[in-house]
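$ fold --in a.seq
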Amino acid sequence: MPRAPSSPHTSQAHATDIEAQLALTDRHCLDHGLKLTSGRKAVLQALLRRGGTAKAYELLADLQSGGASVAPMAVYRSLDFLVAHDIVHKVASNSSFVYCQHAHHSHHEPSFLICERCGSATEWDAEGCHAVVAQALKATGFAVHGIEIQGVCAGCAHADKVTTPAARGSR
């Protein structure tokens, strides 16, 4: 699988962060007897270049943008591997993938904040929240396996504040 293409918007600092995240993932894989193949690494790199959140078809398009032939199943298999080993999480409600911000420790109850406007999904470390929900549901016998909270992200809320006064003035 080809290397993820560079974005003209990738700053030097962002590129350094991506290299650090790839090195961390490489170390995680070595420590756990896993192989971060070139294909898996290219998919992860494409995800990181998108800020750590993307849908599979977006990653496929990024990888194919350099003219390389990349099969959709290769991207899905790579994502399956990354999810299975706590490197990436899958957000069920919007079918996106999110890079794990918690140094790939084995936590099985990720929580996500999902913006209804822009579709962004952010991993949220909410141990206390998860415990409260699990306790509240205990009597029902329902076991919680992750939390996805829908709302409006700070960027979209800020954009609303900026555009709302102008829209009111034009009425």
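$ fold --in b.seq
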Amino acid sequence: MSDPINVKDNLARWDGQRAGFYEIWFLIMIQRSTGHGFWIRYTTHNPCYGAEGNPGATLWFFFQPKVSSASPVCLKQTFPFSQWSTSQNPFQVNIGESSLKSGALQGKMEKDGIMVQWDLTFEPSSMTAYHVVPWFEKIKLAKSMVCCPNLNVPLSGKITLNGEEYVLEND
């Protein structure tokens, strides 16, 4: 699959050096047949000068069942900087064994006896929704830039949480 016209909005902006920097890519989705909600986030971070911690990357997974009596699941797994990589052509972000690229994300996490895997695809959008006017970034007026290159795109694939499969079909 070739990268869409708005791929530049997905590309990593961190140069691997600048202190006080973080960057995120995430998907929020609802399985239409059940109403269950899922959130998967890929993050890279580098602490400010003088702050504790080392550069690294983090995977997040959140499951919110529709039924209020069921318990939500939240996982966070941090990786050393050596397990983070990106490419620009084609666009891809890798954290550990998990990846996000134009039109697909795959990954897995295991923590505290909870195992989750995802293998999802989507047709990338041709438009980006900007939360901050892009020229604010050019004139250094905005301290952070937020954009959504794939707002409201249908997802297909499977999420497996502790052996239970959730199938998404253009959800």
